[in-house]
């Protein structure tokens, strides 16, 4: 109730998830949520969805292309890969994304109540993928707005691997990397970089002289 999730969805989460559930399985469970019953499948849209599945490299049963939960999974994967979709599908995708963050918060709570660390972390990772429109294996640069795989390849040739590298670039090379973006897009990139958190960690091992291989240690 805290996340305004249907009780049928919580029941589905509780019944389907277990301590060995991987991220792909969690995505399947997420897409089975009752909230996605409301995702419309328009007449004749099956062909478009099948084409999207092929574009994404996903195997789908043609008989299930009129299932709103199948559509939800396709549009979430399209979101992760930033694949172009039609205007109608974009509207449906927005509906799915608005529900997904809240549903994943509920899923994390269900998993945590069982004391399962690994699937809980996977669910949190999936939530980050929804928010950032990227996969966990993608370049960190894809977290920046308007960045494309081609720009990531260009950055790699300039030995720019992450967002901190972009922030540390001289003006000339950075302008070359971002060439082609409009002024408003450049402002979006700058805003994202300025908001990116920088975390410094300092630690000290206590009684390091008394440590032995395989023993326990205290860190302060």
Outline the structure in words.
GO terms for molecular function: RNA binding; RNA helicase activity. This is SNRNP200 protein. It is a multi-pass membrane protein. It comes from Symbiodinium pilosum (Dinoflagellate). The chain is mainly α and 220 residues long. It contains ten helices and two strands; from the N terminus they run ααααααααααββ. It has two domains: 126 residues, Sec63 N-terminal domain-like domain (Sec63 N-terminal domain-like fold, Orthogonal Bundle); 82 residues, 5' to 3' exonuclease, C-terminal subdomain (DNA polymerase, domain 1). Strands 1-2 form a two-stranded antiparallel ribbon. The two termini are 40 Å apart. The mean pLDDT is 92.
Strand content: under 5%
Give average pLDDT, whole number: 92
Query: What is the CATH class name of the largest domain?
Result: Mainly Alpha
- What is the string of SSEs from the N terminus onward? HHHHHHHHHHEE
Helical content (DSSP H or I, runs of 4+)? 55-70%
- The strand count comes to 2
Compute the number of structural domains: 2
Distance between the termini: 40 Å
Q: Main β-sheet, in a few words?
A: 2 strands, antiparallel
The gyration radius over C-alpha positions equals 21 Å
In one word, what is the shape?
A: flat
CATH topology name of the largest domain, in short, is: Sec63 N-terminal domain-like fold
The main sheet orders its strands as: 1-2
Structural class: mainly alpha
The appropriate CATH architecture of the largest domain is Orthogonal Bundle
